[in-house]
Amino acid sequence: MRLLHTSDWHLGRAFHRVNMLDAQAAFIDHLVTTARERGVDAVVVSGDVYDRAVPPLAAVELYDDALHRLADLGVPTVLISGNHDSARRLGVGAELIGRAGIHLRTRADRCAEPVVLADDHGDVAFYGLPYLEPALVKDSFGVVRAGHEQVLGAAMDRVRADLAARPDGTRSVVLAHAFVIGGEPSDSERDISVGGVAAVPSGIFHGVDYVALGHLHGSQVITERIRYSGSPLPYSFSEAAHHKTMWLVDLDATGAVSAERLDCPVPRPLARIRGDLEELLADPELTAHEESWVEATLTDAVRPDDPMARLTGRFPHTLSLLFEPRRTETGPDAGYAERLRGRDDQEIAEDFVAHVRGAGPDDAERAVLRAAFDAVRAAEAGAGEVTR
């Protein structure tokens, strides 16, 4: 059976001030064309179809167009909700839409009810595990500790129990939206850490033939059987080194996996350039980036006049301008944005406590801060109806 694995469409999201709807529409064209020309038997979409719980109308229309075109091809499609989606909204009409071969899996309590497709070698069971917000699903899964590893492990136990009851030789595919250990994140993903822990071990998925992951935006191989497709388009300059692709996956009669990366159309390359303004304007080696989307970091000791206007004279698609002036012995401390770069919410809060009172939090205070952040994330997830 041949699968086309994609995820993290983030329909409705912009790239800095650039509306990405046309680029997202071009990707949908590419997806449908690929499914037709490469003889795909099923499309799997591993969450974050939309960028937010209540997407703009244009994004909903593009999603509707994508589903109609895939249904018209006769290619079954399995989709799960991600942490950016509203599971309840995305899942409206799931049973009815399923009659057209579009299978929405947005309910945690139905993770062990697969979509079963068949080829010449028998059945393939597709299990859709929507994003599982631990605080909201721990009771329904009967776990004591509300952590990603615990709830995802409980979901996979149910999957393996259902698979064990199926005929011998049934192959299996799991769709999941999670941060798996070994994956490389970017600045584009929303923080899903709970109790200070975001990642789950890859071994949690043992016993299935292929795991189609979503959440991280870089195309990655965790193991031969566990892969991230990555987002089809870039959504932050931290993705400048990403190769935007989908996975074309073949499952043979025994469940063995072979996979090929297929390029996705990207409207412009990304470039991160750094140096004094005059150097950037004159450097001949930067000619290749003149039509790229550009993030420029200026290192001038003194902020130059009209830097954005001057940069866009050479790099008309400059979208982000940062300042990291060269420091001298008497120069000021690092800027606020520079001090925060690469730090999560917990670390920022602990630094603030240390700044205010001169000493950082103790272990008990760290636990209180962590619990507060977890509660906020759970409240946000509940407001967006991430799962039920």
Automatic annotation (TrEMBL):
Keyword Nuclease attached: yes
Keywords recorded for this protein, A-Z: DNA recombination, DNA replication, Endonuclease, Exonuclease, Hydrolase, Nuclease
Domain Calcineurin-like phosphoesterase residues, every copy: 1-218
Chaperone as UniProt keyword: no
Nuclease SbcCD subunit D C-terminal domain boundaries: 267-355
GO molecular function ontology, one term from the record: exonuclease activity
PANTHER family given in the database record: COMPONENT OF ATP-DEPENDENT DSDNA EXONUCLEASE, NUCLEASE SBCCD SUBUNIT D
Summary of the function given for this chain in its UniProt record: SbcCD cleaves DNA hairpin structures. These structures can inhibit DNA replication and are intermediates in certain DNA recombination reactions. The complex acts as a 3'->5' double strand exonuclease that can open hairpins. It also has a 5' single-strand endonuclease activity.
Self-association state and partner proteins as the record states: Heterodimer of SbcC and SbcD.
Matching NCBIfam families: sbcd
Assigned protein family: Belongs to the SbcD family.
Name of the molecule in the record: Nuclease SbcCD subunit D
Organism field: Streptomyces beihaiensis
Gene that encodes the chain: sbcD
